[in-house]
Task: inverse folding
């Protein structure tokens, strides 16, 4: 099959580039966690195939900052449904490969749109969660913070143990701004000058995702897009692997190990 030959050639080429990379920037989206069984449409809305909710409003509206300001209990209802659908899911082989690439001695900075916390759980040390983390709760009134493994023991909406206010998950809702700290860390990572950029499972519709990749292309820095579906971005990069994230990363790691270029340069 010609398609498989092409994939193999691309995987070998990516592994060769990776063997020489010292500062890898990885941008991950919903497709990264698809192999863990998480819904991919914007990471959350995949549970609502017709786009509607049983409250008769679009899921994007139910999960918006504007709705949370007016009817937080309604937003919480859908956040907790999503959490329940994802409960028990674990980091997949792709997350593990990225963690091992870092342990192999190179700098691996991960910028993720996902709120599942899987990169950190898999052992990656330099993770920028652009949209926050579903399992980190914060009280806007008194700044009490806590981390929960899941929402199983949580009253919905949860009450702050310190001031009886309402806790909210530290996630970026639709129509909300990206957190300043995440943006600053992302800009710092870009300023350090990655020598290879990978986009995994993201459709890169947001300029803050797409632009750094296009910038890398312009500067001649090796670029890779791993996504079963082709996008304008995948046509712009050096290598597009039309594969699921876990399969592609596992194949790249294998090629890296068997090419003699492997993880010896620690
Ligand atoms: Zn409080």
Result:
């Amino acid at each position: 099959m010609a398609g498989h030959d092409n994939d193999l050639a691309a995987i070998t080429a990516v592994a060769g580039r990776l063997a020489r990379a010292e500062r890898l920037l990885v941008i991950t989206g919903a497709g990264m966690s698809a192999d863990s069984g998480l819904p991919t449409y914007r990471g959350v809305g995949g549970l609502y195939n017709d786009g509607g909710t049983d409250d008769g409003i679009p899921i994007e509206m139910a999960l918006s900052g504007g709705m949370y300001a007016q009817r937080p209990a309604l937003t919480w209802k859908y956040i907790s449904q999503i959490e329940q659908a994802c409960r028990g899911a674990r980091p997949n082989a792709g997350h593990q490969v990225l963690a091992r690439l870092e342990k192999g001695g190179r700098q691996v900075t991960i910028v993720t749109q996902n709120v599942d916390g899987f990169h950190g759980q898999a052992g990656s040390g330099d993770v920028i969660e652009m949209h926050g983390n579903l399992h980190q709760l914060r009280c806007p009134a008194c700044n009490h913070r806590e981390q929960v493994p899941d929402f199983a023991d949580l009253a919905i909406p949860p009450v702050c143990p310190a001031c009886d206010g309402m806790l909210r998950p530290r996630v970026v809702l639709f129509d909300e701004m990206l957190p300043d700290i995440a943006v600053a860390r992302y800009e710092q990572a870009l300023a350090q000058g990655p020598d290879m950029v990978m986009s995994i499972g993201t459709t890169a519709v947001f300029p803050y995702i797409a632009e750094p990749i296009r910038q890398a292309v312009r500067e001649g820095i090796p670029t890779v897009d791993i996504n079963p579906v082709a996008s304008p971005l995948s046509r712009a990069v050096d290598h597009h692997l039309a594969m699921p994230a876990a399969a592609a990363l596992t194949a790249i790691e294998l090629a890296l190990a068997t090419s003699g270029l492997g993880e010896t340069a620690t």
